[in-house]
Each structure stands twice: as C-alpha cells, then as structure tokens.
Design a protein that fits this description.
This protein is an alpha+beta fold and about 200 residues long. Helix content is about 35%, strand content about 20%. The chain contains 6 helices and 11 strands. Strand 1 (about 15-20), helix 2 (about 25-35) and strand 2 (about 40-45) form a beta-alpha-beta unit. Helix 2 packs parallel to helix 6 (about 165-180). The protein is elongated and about 70 Å long.
Length: about 200
C-alpha cells in the first residue's frame, strides 16, 4: 500500500469516478473500478473502515432470516457472495457454526426449521461451508454443555461465516491502490461543483 504522501503525488486533475467513503462498500467499489481500468479516487474523511465496517457483527451471512420473508432471490444472492468471499479471501473469511435449539414452547416447530435449513442448503447449491445437521442429545454436552435441556425438542446446526471486517476493507483498498486507484484518507469531501466548460463535476 503506497504511503499517504505517495498517494497525494498520484492525484490527477480528473477522474472517471470519485468514491466518497472508505468502508467496505466504498473500497469494494473502487477496487472493482480499478480492476476494470477505470480511473478512480476514494475520499475518506477519517481512516479506512472507521465507521460501520469496523463495528459490524463480523458475520458474512447467507440471509437465512430472509427465508421467513420468502425473499429467496436475496438469500441466493447472499449465499453466492458468501461463497465468493470464501474463495478469494479464505484467510479472512472462516466457517462459523450456529446452533438453533427448538423447545416445546418455541414459536417455530422443528420440522419447519429443518425444512428451512434444507431450502437454505439448496439455495447455496449445496456449497455452503458445511451442510446443516442435527446434533444428537447424547453429544450436546460436548458441543454446548451450557444449553438448557428442559423441554428440548431438537438442535439443528447450520453454518455461515465470520470475517475480520476491518482487514477485509483494508485489503480491498490495497488491491485497488495496486491496480492504480488513488486512496485518500483523512480527506473530507465538502462539495462538488459543476464545470460548465467541460460539462462535468469537479
């Protein structure tokens, strides 16, 4: 990653695209632009991943909760993007297991949950980090000894992924810079003006 002074030396008089905000979205966008040969500059008023992108749940989820809303397209898109991240950043994106215990008093029945988990695996084209499974009660003491056993009906386990979100943001910015993008941190975008002669923003 070039130094801050080196980045300022790379500043051009014009760019095809100006990206404001150095979170994961901004860094991902400028990386994609740079890889396509489009001249781009990213402006971040603080440091990279300063805001939400360093204070997230650290979860790269496939959108399991959206199944209840019947948003199958969104789930398919989410699990597809999760698989891409697993492939291109295996050092940052790791499988993470979740237990979903169902009790007699739970509003969701076990058969309905298992149906949803099979659908979740199907929408990932059965290429999730691992397919869901049922945890036998005899093995619960090893998997999760603190789990309450009273009126327990069943315990499915499914997988999403976790990540180092700040590092993922930084590596997107590094890739963008290596491909020619200009990354300016501690640089606040205050306003844009219209250049009448060039018929463009400046």
């Amino acid at each position: 990653m070039p130094s801050r002074s080196e980045m300022w030396q790379r500043v051009q008089s014009s760019y095809d695209v100006v990206v404001v905000g150095g979170g994961i979205c901004g860094c991902g966008i400028v990386r994609d632009l740079a890889e396509r040969g489009i001249s781009a500059v990213l402006l971040e008023q603080y440091d990279l991943a300063y805001g939400t992108s360093s204070r997230s749940s650290k979860l790269v989820h496939g959108g399991f909760r959206y199944l209840k809303q019947l948003r199958f397209g969104l789930v398919f898109e989410s699990v597809s993007e999760r698989r891409i991240l697993l492939k291109i950043a295996p050092h940052l994106v790791k499988p993470l297991a979740f237990l979903f215990p169902i009790y007699k008093s739970s509003p969701l029945s076990l058969w309905m949950l298992r149906l949803g988990l099979w659908l979740y695996d199907f929408l990932s084209l059965f290429r999730s980090p691992k397919l869901h499974k049922m945890i036998p009660k005899s093995k619960l003491s090893k998997v999760e000894p603190a789990l309450r056993r009273d009126n327990l009906v069943g315990v499915p386990m499914y997988y999403d992924c976790s990540t180092d979100d700040a590092r993922l943001t930084l590596e997107n910015a590094i890739d963008a810079a290596q491909d020619g993008a200009t990354i300016l941190t501690w640089t606040k975008a205050e306003r844009f003006s219209w250049d009448e002669k060039k018929n463009s923003l400046r």
